Amino acid sequence: MIQINNLSKKYKDTDFYSVKKLNLNINEGEIFGLLGPNGAGKTTLISMLSSLLKPTSGSFSINKLTYSENQKELKQLIGTVPQEYALYPTLTALENLMYFGSMYGVKKPLLKEEIYTHLEILGLSKFSHQKIKTFSGGMKRRINLIAGILHKPKVLFLDEPTVGVDVQSRNAIIKHLEKLNKNGTTIIYTSHHLNEAEEFCTRVAIIDHGSIVVKGEPKELINDQQGAKHLEDVFLSLTGKALRDYA
Fold it and tell me: Measured between alpha carbons, how far is residue 160 from residues 71, 101, 218, 219 in Å?
């Protein structure tokens, strides 16, 4: 589904590459986890694959469509759920979702049906006419997710989709994503919740300093790392325990 060849990104006025000659293939129907410390290059990689950021060099294709030749078609094929809330706080949940759905070209009757279906599944139906600024963090995360899937994308990019939410919201989000995946959506997901990634992902890649350190099935990586009992043990062994705060 996704083929990445020597993909690199160097931001202006920086001395280093955020993503450096990265190669990766992701199969159709996978839930693929991109894991790494702060500043490892995860968000930059997702931004390039989502056609939000132009690569410095290298190439990639999604469902055989390339960034250089099929940018418009690519944007219709994919859905993106960013780490930051991409919502208008003074609009209601319904108004936000109608707006984002129409941007993807979903016809109004079908769009409303899709919106109410997702709101019901994620426990938000009774809040559809309330303004986003009144919502809790978990409610905003769920609306953020719905906004990215209304056009039924073939590939869904998720950047920290459960960060800062309560256990119930996290459970609802993960269950909904698993259902989408079973219905044919390929998912690419970043998270710092390694226990969640261990259970959720079919395969993962650990990224550090813009390059892939290791990739494989979570259980396989745990078994291959001496003394590891969980994916977190593998992660710390390969990326170190030093703090990665950056500004």
Answer: 24, 22, 18, 22
